[in-house]
Design a protein that fits this description.
Layout: E1 6-11, H1 17-26, E2 31-34, H2 49-58, E3 62-65, H3 88-96, H4 100-115, E4 118-122, H5 132-141, E5 145-151, E6 154-157, E7 164-167, E8 170-173
Parallel strand pairs: 1-4, 1-5, 2-3, 2-4
Antiparallel strand pairs: 5-6, 7-8
Length: about 180
């Protein structure tokens, strides 16, 4: 399967609703898939599920919550192979990526992205600090071009994480690295 268009990623961070909508509209995204495990924010209530859905719908952008299939906040297995991921939650999500539930979630996401310009949304501003990075790796493995939306006019194409190696259809994060993140 050859995929010629891109899927976007976006972190709401502490932006205003208007700022988030500007980023989404500039990228011509018409569908947002929320990949937060819990689509609620006390710190930024404008990004709680119902409020966010209402703002997106008013801008003619469809909202979907991915549920637990693509949600973060996972515990690492004691025998996790993903030893290069320093954060236990990232290791836990990498472990989850080997499950049928994740495969179904990715298949649904790809189906949406083939029909309309789609972005996955989580809370963290920078994808390097979020499980969106791992989802992006899985999408790249499946032939999808992934673009991180960082600001209204700032985008960066995703490249596979330095810690990852591909083993058949599986990603394993066991390459230890001291790479420097370029945040420009």
């Amino acid at each position: 399967m050859t995929i010629t268009h891109a899927l976007f990623t976006l972190g709401h961070s502490n932006r205003s609703t208007g700022s988030l909508l500007e980023i989404i509209c500039n990228a011509q995204v018409s569908c947002v898939v929320d990949v937060r495990a819990v689509p609620h924010s006390t710190r930024c209530p404008q990004f709680s599920q119902d409020t966010l859905r209402s703002a997106l719908n008013a801008a003619q952008v469809t909202y979907h919550w991915a549920g637990r299939a693509l949600g973060g906040r996972r515990s690492a297995r004691p025998d996790s192979l993903h030893e290069a991921l320093q954060d236990a939650a990232s290791r836990g999500f990498a472990d989850h990526m080997d499950t049928p539930e994740f495969a179904r979630g990715i298949a649904q996401l790809l189906n949406l992205a083939q029909r309309e310009p789609t972005a996955i949304l989580c809370a963290e501003h920078m994808p390097e600090h979020c499980h969106r990075r791992l989802i992006a790796d899985a999408l790249v493995l499946r032939g999808m071009r992934v673009i991180h939306l960082l600001a209204a006019k700032l985008q960066r194409e995703h490249v596979l994480s330095a810690e990852v190696r591909r083993e058949s259809t599986t990603l394993i994060y066991d390459r230890h690295t001291t790479r420097r993140l370029d945040l420009q």
